[in-house]
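Job type: complex structure
Entries:
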Amino acid sequence: MENIRELQAYGYFFFTLFLVVVLYAYILHLYRAEKKGTRNYEKYGKLALDDEIDATPVEPNDKGTDETKENKEQS
Amino acid sequence: MQNAGLEYDYTVSKWFAYLAIIFGIVGMSIGTYIAFELAFPGMNEWFGQYGTFSRLRPIHTNVVAFGFTLSGIWAAMYYIAQRTLKVSLKENSFVHGLAKAHFWLYLLLAALMVTTELMGITTSKEYAEMEWPLDVLTVVVWVLFGMAMFGMIGMRREKTLYISMWYFIAFFLGVAMLYLFNNMEVPTYFVTGMGKWYHSVSMYSGTNDALVQWWYGHNAVAFVFTVPIVAMIYYYLPKESGQPVFSYKLSLLSFWGLMFVYLWAGGHHLIYSTVPDWMQTMGSVFSVILILPSWGSAINMLLTMKGEWNQLKESPLIKFMVLASTFYMLSTLEGPIQAIKSVNALAHFTDWIPGHVHDGTLGWVGFMVIAAILHMAPRYFKREIYSRKLMEMQFWLQTTGIVLYFSSMWIAGITQGMMWRAVDQYGNLAYSFIDTVTVLHPYYTIRAIGGLLYVTGLFMWAYNFYKTMQSDKVLEKEPAFASPMGA
């Protein structure tokens, strides 16, 4: 029984450590993606502000309504 | 642009907004009534069995949580989803039909819920009182909601989902999972021939039932009172103030933090009960960790107002939202404190608990729903909000109401807890139960008055909304940011 408790304790400690690493890795990932220029997360804040239906999308969706319509028109 | 000339369709959003107003008034009026019953118990006899505290309390909680709050959330969802995805419900009659079916079936469900609970038909599980036929109907309503929401997401012109949509998706998935597992029940008539056809018992028993129930119960707070309300503030506060969210990265981090941590915190409802000790400790620990993602969102909202604090003075709508996020911070600090074992030994089963619930629900949830609907009103009706002054008065009246509510319950709860555990030099209990009742009477009265102030504010809200519909100050163009309002 003591053995199982000991294992549980080790398991608990390493799992917590693992989760902390995941959390910090995610923060690192967010900042590195921005630094490398692959993503600019802050521009998504504009999604709430420029939300008129005829506003230019922040990132257009290739499979969205307009494109589907266009495809149908072409075929 | 191909979509020039197209407009957003607010029909379903508007219907849900009307419902939120009606349910808010009904649910909180009942709440105020039963608060007065606690202070003046004679009132329990006024309407026979239909007016007793025990009959009305589940109606109060269900109508406010699953009537007022859900309607407010869906009014916001059908509005925010269209706008941040840049699609109109007009563009797809099937998805629009699903949204309308969602509304009408939900209305039917809500009517059945109130009727059955008034008749005393319940499963006796807190916040899961509906009997099995209504649980089945709930699943249908939920599936329709999901199909309508994912239908809009499928049509979207905007590739990236705004953070509010992340939260709405989590709301959909979280509630679906919690509801299904907690409402697993055995219809007694069909299995044993006992009881009426609509009666059931839980499929779990004893401690397991308690564990599942509070895993559900606390996560109802998470996925109904927190997650979709965070979705709302992430949209309405930036939009009304014209400021983009302070840190989008922080919003993502808080999202995942909240998702992971919240699901483990429910055990704090069962501290010092028959559940395993490690589970109680886990409930406490996760409750304390929960401060981080909760404050992450709340601070993000307050920092969104950086350099624009003058708006707090100028706009009552901003006041509602800033105070909502402040109440969110208060209640997400208070909750973890109550979840600490030694504090819980004093606080559990006392009035401090409903005090905590109400500074969260009245201050955070209520204020966000009120602000969201008033923000949408000029967009719904293309008219100015009827009166800024009325909104200001409502704000101050309701804030006073909340302060009276939680401060009286703090004092009552701690007094009660101390009296229950007080012993004399020989270890005998120092007080009998009735001693606590006598001492608590003034605080119960103050609480009821606080509730009355809040409900009065709701009538002012409804009146302002109604007059906005009829206002002759028509807007040429939909306002971009700050909502226009008359004096």
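Summary: The helical segments of chain A are 2-36, 46-49, 65-74. Residues 30 and 41 of chain A are 8 Å apart (CA to CA).
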